[in-house]
Amino acid sequence: MDENNSDEESDNTAxxxxxxxxxxxxxxxxxxxxxxxxxxxxxxxxxxPCSVILGEYVWQQKQRFSEANVVELGAGTCLPGLVxxxxxxxxxxxxxxxxxxxxxNMRRVCDLNKLECNVLGLTWGVWDSSIFDLRxxxxxxxxxxxxxxxxxxLFATVTFxxxxxPGSTFITSYHNRSGHHLIEFLMxxxxxxxxxxxxxxxxxxSFKASQLSGNIQLVEMALMSKDNA
Length: 229
Fold this sequence. Notes:
The protein is built from nine helices and nine strands. The protein has helices at 3-16, 49-60, 62-65, 79-86, 100-112, 129-132, 151-164, 180-189, 206-209; strands spanning 17-25, 30-38, 69-72, 90-95, 118-121, 138-142, 169-175, 192-199, 216-223.
């Protein structure tokens, strides 16, 4: 690619980018997270409804997240992880190691929000040195259950992290495309149990719920005890 074409592609990418604002508030506090999104059809650079719902859940559970060690898987635009960082969590944001543009955008968004998060390339089902150092008390994943071909790699990674940090939990929001029975099957297969299951829209303020659509569930999972195995 010659220099002129490269400059033109950069200009087009810049024109397709936008910064969205996401507010979270209660009676005592309001925070705002700015997200750099790209309006091209790139799943990793767009804030999907599952991210909004999981971010809201983190906000409503902010005392639980304060000072927690949080790892967000498939973070993309990383809204839930950034909310966790904003309320005092120690956050590692991860996405596929091969998606350098997504990882670069995550660093940019951290700088934009003046948040210090660790950004890490982590490919599900791949055991490189980086994953062995992670000791999350809470694992987050927004809309990570969309490609059935990746389910086992995702659950293998989640299970490893849960075992690496006893007492930890995995919280994910997902579109209920195939029915919760599929999630139940995966949990049983990987020795996990459901700790909490919610209708995603039940936790949203009404003005946010009116802007989103879909059948979105939020589930907390943990390792099944040996007694229940």
